[in-house]
């Protein structure tokens, strides 16, 4: 079995750390992964699952580097040739499979069968060019349609000894049971507020408490600075939930609807459901994890919040039917 030529191998630019000390998720999780690496118990088909921005992709690269490192302890040393190449994005045996643009220039919503055949099945026929393993990171793996998942079943169950699969998924329910059953699953979760605050302080963020509140335990938001956008979004949503039923605030509230259009719809709905939950907690005498406009909470009833929760759930189906996003937001936030 021959090896591919170096110039024929697509490599991936890497933007993630490979050293374990740069991983800020739960220490227990890192300890578990370390034990798996130390004892050679990492399954050749690994599934990293969990909500967005909790460290799944970072962990995938940390595990990949450890498997390729010349002197793992059990994590990557960061100094050997393999580690240095991975950091620079020029390691030929680490493949990142993800969504691509279609012929029209739009980003696809699925990983298509041609990708699976060319970038995975055909590539896996040849052993690593220079590494210990030929590693395929597939993200988001739930974007593999049913045909793609079925095409991968055989190699996921009996991969060549030199192949390592790392599937990354936010919505594991979209993976076929036959795929998921072939995987060793590691689930990542959001950190507690206290843990998140410690990370924010360790990162030297000036507004550590605000950052911890806005990120909701999603460490990726702290690291890439996106927590500021989430904070702004939460402020907009809170204003809409509290003042949306008040006629005298109609003009101000309408302008907030326009601001929402700058954010992804699924993100808006997710944050709305979260803030509703936090408002209900506060109204029930339980301290919220975010800063609420407590002096105005009497303006919104639990019954209205319950209705808005139902509307958010309905909104997902409305989006699938291509209903206007602005109309959906008006339906959720304005009036009773």
What attributes characterize this protein structure?
single chain; 336 residues; alpha/beta; Rossmann fold; 2 domains; 5-stranded parallel beta sheet; 7% strand; disordered N terminus
Description:
The chain is an alpha/beta fold. It has 2 domains: 182 residues, P-loop containing nucleotide triphosphate hydrolases (Rossmann fold, 3-Layer(aba) Sandwich); 108 residues. Helices cover 47% and strands 7% of the residues. The protein starts with 26 loop residues before the first helix and ends with a helix. The N terminus is likely disordered.
Give a quick rundown of the structure:
With 336 residues, the chain is of the alpha/beta class. Helix content is 47%, strand content 7%. The chain has two domains: 6-187, Rossmann fold; 226-333.
The named CATH superfamily of the largest domain: P-loop containing nucleotide triphosphate hydrolases
- β-strand percent reads 5-15%
- How many domains make up the 3D coordinates? 2
Q: Taking strands numbered 1, 2, ... along the chain, how are they ordered across the largest sheet?
A: 2-3-4-1-5
CATH topology of the largest domain: Rossmann fold
Quaternary state of this entry equals single chain
Mean pLDDT: 88
Distinct helical segment count: 14
Taking all Cα atoms into account, the compactness measure Rg is 23 Å
- Uncertain spans, ≥5 residues at pLDDT below 50? 1-11
Major pleated sheet: 5 strands, parallel
Can you identify the CATH class of the largest domain? Alpha Beta
**Shape, please?**
globular
Per DSSP E runs of 2 or more residues, the count of β-strands stands at: 5
């Amino acid at each position: 079995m021959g090896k591919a030529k170096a110039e024929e191998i697509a490599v991936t630019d890497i933007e993630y750390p490979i050293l374990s000390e740069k991983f800020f998720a739960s220490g227990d999780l890192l300890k578990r992964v370390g034990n798996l690496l130390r004892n050679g118990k990492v399954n050749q088909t690994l599934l990293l699952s969990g909500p967005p921005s909790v460290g799944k992709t970072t962990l995938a690269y940390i595990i990949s580097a450890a498997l390729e490192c010349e002197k793992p302890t059990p994590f990557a040393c960061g100094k050997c040739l393999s580690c240095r190449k991975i950091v620079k994005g020029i390691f030929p045996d680490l493949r990142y499979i993800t969504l691509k643009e279609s012929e029209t220039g739009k980003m696809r919503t699925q990983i298509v069968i041609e990708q699976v055949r060319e970038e995975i099945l055909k590539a896996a026929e040849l052993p690593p060019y220079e590494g210990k393993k030929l590693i395929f990171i597939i993200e988001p793996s739930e974007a593999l349609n049913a045909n793609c998942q079925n095409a991968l079943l055989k190699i996921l169950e009996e991969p060549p000894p030199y192949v390592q699969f790392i599937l990354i998924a936010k919505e594991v329910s979209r993976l076929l049971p036959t795929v998921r059953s072939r995987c060793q699953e590691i689930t990542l979760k959001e950190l507690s507020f206290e843990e998140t605050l410690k990370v924010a302080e360790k990162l030297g963020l000036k507004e550590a408490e605000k950052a911890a509140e806005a990120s909701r335990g999603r460490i990726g938001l702290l690291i890439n600075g996106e927590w500021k956008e989430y904070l702004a979004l939460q402020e907009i949503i809170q204003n809409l939930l509290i003042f949306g039923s008040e006629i005298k605030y109609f003009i101000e509230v309408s302008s907030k609807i326009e601001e929402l259009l700058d954010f992804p719809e699924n993100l808006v709905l997710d944050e709305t459901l979260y803030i509703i939950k936090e408002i209900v907690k506060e109204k029930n005498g339980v301290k919220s994890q975010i800063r609420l406009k407590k002096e105005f909470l009497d303006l919104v009833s639990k019954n209205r919040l319950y209705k808005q929760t139902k509307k958010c759930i309905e909104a997902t189906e409305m989006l699938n039917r291509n209903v206007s996003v602005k109309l959906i937001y008006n339906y959720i936030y304005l009036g009773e």
